[in-house]
Amino acid sequence: AQSVAQPEDQVNVAEGNPLTVKCTYSVSGNPYLFWYVQYPNRGLQFLLKYITGDNLVKGSYGFEAEFNKSQTSFHLKKPSALVSDSALYFCAVRDFYDTGRRALTFGSGTRLQVQP
Amino acid sequence: SQTIHQWPATLVQPVGSPLSLECTVEGTSNPNLYWYRQAAGRGLQLLFYSVGIGQISSEVPQNLSASRPQDRQFILSSKKLLLSDSGFYLCAWTRRSVFSTDTQYFGPGTRLTVL
Known about the structure:
The complex is a heterodimer of chains A (about 120) and B (about 120).
Chain A: E1 3-5, E2 10-14, E3 19-21, E4 24-26, E5 31-38, E6 44-50, E7 56-58, E8 64-68, E9 73-78, E10 87-95, E11 105-106, E12 110-115
Parallel strand pairs in A: 2-12
Antiparallel strand pairs in A: 1-4, 3-9, 5-6, 5-10, 7-8, 8-9, 10-11, 10-12
Chain B: E1 3-7, E2 10-13, E3 19-26, E4 32-38, E5 44-52, E6 55-58, E7 65-70, E8 73-78, E9 87-94, E10 104-106, E11 110-114
Parallel strand pairs in B: 2-11
Antiparallel strand pairs in B: 1-3, 3-8, 4-5, 4-9, 5-6, 7-8, 9-10, 9-11
C-alpha cells in the first residue's frame, strides 16, 4: 500500500523569503510523485511531477521540488514567496506498478500562508 | 487542449433526496476518470474510477454510485443522501496510455451540502 505524509498542517513565511513544504512517501515500487495547489473552492492545479532522472524538478509559478530517494522525500520549494502563493498544497504518489488504476494517493495537505 | 467540466458548482440538498453530479472531459479520448471527495478542505479520498464505458471500480463502500454512459462522461449518484455525504466532489482524468506516469487533471469541483 502506498501513503503520503505532509507533517505540517500550516507553513507561514514572509513574502520574499524562501519556502519549503515537506512531503514524505511510501510505495512498494518506484514512486511517481506529484504536487498540486488548491485555491479556495477550486479544483486542484498541477504544479510539477517527478518520474525519473534529475532529482530537482522545476514546475509552474517558480516552484521546484527535490526528490530524495534515501529519505523518501519530495519537498516543494520556492526561492522567493509571493502573497499570491497562499493556498493549500497537496503531495501525491502513484506506484510504478499501478499501470491499471493509476489513481493517486494524496497527503492531507499543507496550508501555506505568505505574509506581506 | 483538454478541459474538464463539472456541474453543478454548488448544490444544497435535503437528507434522503437523490443526487446526480456530472463530469465531462473534452479534447481527449478513452481517458481514465476518477471521483474524489474532499472533506473539510483537506485530504482527498478516491471514491470511484473508470477505465472505460460501463467499467466502474469502487474504492470504498458507501451511499454513492458512479456510472460512465459515454466515453467522456462520468456521473456520481445517490438514491438517498446522508448528512455525511456533504463535501467537495472532484472529478479528474488521466490519459490512458502504456505509461503510468501521466498527470491527473482535476475539474473545478462541486460543493455539496446535505441538510
